[in-house]
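Single-chain item
Fold in token form
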Amino acid sequence: MRPLAIHAYTATTALGAGRDALWQALRDQRSGLSPCDFDDAELATWIGRVPGCENVELPAALSDWHCRNNQLAELALQQDGFIEAVETAKRQHSPERIGLFLGTSTSGIGTTERAYRDVADARLPSWFSFEHTHDYFALCGYVQQRLGLSGPALTISTACSSSAKVFASAARSIESGFCDMAVVGGVDSLCLTTLYGFASLQLTSPEPCRPWDAQRSGISIGEAGGFALVGPAGGAAGGPRVIGVGESGDAYHMAAPEPDGRGAALAMQRALDSAGLASGAVDYINLHGTATPANDQAEDRAVAGLFGRSTAASSTKGWTGHTLGAAGIVEAVIACLAIEHDYRPATLNTREVDSGLGCRLLIAPEPGGVQRVLSNTFGFGGSNCSLLLAGENI
């Protein structure tokens, strides 16, 4: 693929708003996870809740779009000069030449949950608007109007790989001439459907998640929003670049990963192939690393089989929780920060690495020599995506 330059990027997570809050927490090894206090959920688990999300006000002209997911999108858009960067791009290319590709897994379903509590006479309340909240295009519709864009726009919902796959869609659309630049990203907010859904599958942990740990017991669900402005690499554009994208589908099971990680390995290999690189060129792998027994084992087999025991790898879910449809963009931002600060973050909360797992997992941070980073996001049911990012001079 032709590399994509990342002209601006931002992420808002349980660690705070903007990428500086994310970087400071990574450096200080400070988690954003806390005991579950969301809504009236009665679950013994930990979550990654974005501070102040429910207090965010939308612009008055967009008040019909009010829901937690769009509030989180608004908070994320306001960070790191992102809106200003898009305004500059609009002056250079025009709004209809900038695409919009966003990922989410549940959109504004939290508003639907509240609406069903208020059902009267078999009717949903008059204040409820499915189109502006729960509909999968609601996220794209809100961001499109908020940023004043009129180019191609679509929402991708492939569970946890959603906001990684947006980079692939943007690259194809730019290459095909449908747009000149694109805003990519993803937003997923906490809701009872997700919390109770994963708990019913016995996938949530009663403690902060411990990826790759011998006693790992499941995920910590988080929420997050993040965005990047991308375009063809070249010219004077600085900053990190996406130099490879790999996608695959396990076609194995509706929920469980293929046990040997063959689909995950295929996504990683395709990312390398699209960049024209061998596995030895990767300096750090940001693992999907959810801390469930099956997922970590399958990913480990894929990583160890392709990279051996030499390439440093870690999961950053211990900081943010598993942000589901926003995981791809959050961890792409972490990959950019790793390159920018020449730093490989550790795997937080892991006490004893599972002796049956074989990749080189970092339990302490490792600085130096970070030029190319592979970021893995493997979705529920085997929808896989790997992104390969590099510094501007590579």
About this structure: Residues 24 and 205 are 26 Å apart (CA to CA). The chain has one domain: 4-390.
